[in-house]
Task: structure prediction
Amino acid sequence: MHRIAWRDLGPPDAPVWLVVHGGPGGACQPGMLAPFDLQRDRVIAPDQRGAGSSRPRGLLARNNTAALVEDLEALRAHLGINRWSILAGSWGSVVALAYAARYPDRVQRLVLRGSFRLTRREIAGLLQPSVQKGKRLGRADAGWPLGRSLPLPVALGRADQLLQKRASGATATALLRGWQLRELRDAATGVRRSLRQQSAVPAAQQRRDWMALRRQMRRLDASLPRTHRLPQDAQLWSRYRIQAHYLLHRGFIGPLGLDAAVQAVLVHRIPVDWVHGQVDAICPPANSHRWMTAAHGAQWVRLHQPVAGHLSGERAMLMCLRDCVAQNRSISL
Result:
């Protein structure tokens, strides 16, 4: 049986926000609260099935997007909340759209950052070695068990198979650490690209963020030759086990299902702020452009394009998200 963990922060009578984390297999991190003023916003931050502090960790049984949607609705009813706004990013935007399409009367507004469309190109970009300059990973690519020659469905099936049981052995260890290294690489790529377009003061902070990501990458790269288990491997196992499971099944909704969910949101006139970094190296900005175009100029749908990559904590991205949340607060008042 799945047990869902959540945090309930801020004044109980304040406008309510639901935060939907990314991944799949991630968790609600403290930085995800940064767009809010917890003196004036109530924030509900659950961890999805099998992820973060929810238990059992890494459990795949009855773990699919429809179940995640029902978990959110059960949480809303349990907390006695009539309607809430939703802030979601990356994979979280998939869950948020599915929820809004299923329960439109319960959603006041959507703020969707760096939306993921579950295309083959996006998934392959996450998992398969790249020949692009700046994206090659040297020995991490050489020891990567999901080589570029494998068709994507085969590569995903192999990842899912390797992570069925708790990771052990050199191959599973290389998969876990290499997967995290790829995520860090793509996040760092977005930050690096944004540096070229910013003035001195914002660029200084971005440069510090980029250097911090590079340090994490170096530490992780140094751990690749070590075949013995490290303390962080157990957490990586649960995260990437769930992620492989969802990606193998195209999120249990797929690109066409997401298009249908967007159409349902538009039909019900739910206000949407699409927020997408101009230089996002994980989820292409074309995703949000596509769904913005589907609104055909509807005034309740807006597109924001900060000079940022994929991460919610990048300065320009965070400022944009804060503006979106603050606007919702003024509407609620």
